[in-house]
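Repro:
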Amino acid sequence: MKLLLYNLEHNATEQLSIGFRKAEWLPNSTKSNHTSREHHVKWIHKQTFKTLNDYSEEEVSLRLATYKKIIVVRDPLERLASAWLDKFVITPERLGRFGFVRRIRRRLESLQSHTLIDELSKINEERADNDPKRVSFREFLFAISHQMERSQHWLSFNRLCAPCKIDYDFVAHTDTIASDIRLFLKQNNITANEDVLPKHQSRNVNNGNVFKDFYGRVPIDEILPLQKVFQKDFDMFGYSFEEDLAKISVGKTRG
């Protein structure tokens, strides 16, 4: 719900509008387009939203029984690309690196397993930049598949939102967030100011660009381990790992 409130406030869910090639290196002309992000990031991290852990068992039971509950989900691979772009590229350029970026970088550098070192060396050899502190997209996927760092930004919805324990009244998808939110409000007789609702606009995220521009550079054998990590999300929310792989394969053939 914290993320939903952020999206309603800033209309930020609708697009992953910057392409991989622009985002990876962020030339100065591109950076200037993201000055408003500084306000967005500061705003959301200053909010003190309560979670169920802040209530007693009786209060939790009351809320789960009487409150309307909505979960907003996203294609797992698309979500990973968005998380890396925002948390490892765009925001660090404006506000500095998050703690988890530094922790992942240190863990990548201090691996003791020879197997992991062999796998990671292939990735490091292909790094296209000279910034030793940067976590590339391939390194990020490697860290996620080996569960090096847990964060709400990429932890599976199955583990983050407990859909098997909480009976959600409504499942919204970022692909159709504008219409989904309006339907949820209408079904519950809630009136909202149109200005704060997500706008109806075309999205460039799920039309193959993400799978081509982000995952197209990643060998398939480095993507396959992600299926095990996010399989329950794929199964529960109507997404398909196989369909995503097909889009990636098409993207690779188109260069």
